[in-house]
């Protein structure tokens, strides 16, 4: 797997991540969602540099201009519910992309630390020969992405898979690399070293879904 980690590259992306992590700023759920969206825009822009391009002639009011425009067919597939704001960031740049949505959540039986990832809803177009952008803000254990990959199999074989995340753990990234094809690309804004007993990233930022949309039952 090709890993593009932007944590050690000085850019405005660091400001967005700092605000997402900050326990005081993240209390503003609207700002939290906006920062998730902006991280999606930055990562989407960086990803766009790797796509295929073809020359098209554009007619202007005063003449014509040859321009290199993306020729790939993209599908943005996001994991609910934390992935919704992230998804909008990519759509802001890839407005012609098709869309897919997956409902995946951790099931902690009897509130135990151990959990299984359950996928209850999956809606996606045909992926055959297309560029799949798989968006999950928090890449913790990698088990969610593993289950999602299994669910994608019946939708066709993508030309290439790009995984995009806001924050990931070293353990989760290592596990994901063993599951996905070798030519998969991971685009990630920050990588943390550890997970706690419940499988949450430390120091991370907390529960991205709850911070975006409120606590769940």
- What separation lies between the terminal Cα atoms? 36 Å
Percent of residues in beta strands? 25-35%
The CATH topology comes to Rossmann fold
Count of DSSP helices?
6
Describe the structure concisely.
By secondary structure, the chain is of the alpha/beta class.
Molecular structure report:
- Strands 1, 4, 5, 6, 7, 8, 9 and 10 form an 8-stranded mixed sheet that branches. Strands 2-3 form a two-stranded antiparallel ribbon.
- Helix 1 packs antiparallel against helix 2 and helix 2 packs across helix 3.
- The protein has one domain: 3-Layer(aba) Sandwich (Rossmann fold), CATH 3.40.50.2020.
- It has 6 helices and 12 strands.
- The longest helix is centred in the first third of the chain and has 20 residues.
- The model has no long low-confidence stretch (mean pLDDT about 90).
- By secondary structure, it is α/β, with parallel strands linked by helices.
- Helix content is about 30%, strand content about 35%.
- Strand 5 and strand 6 form a beta hairpin.
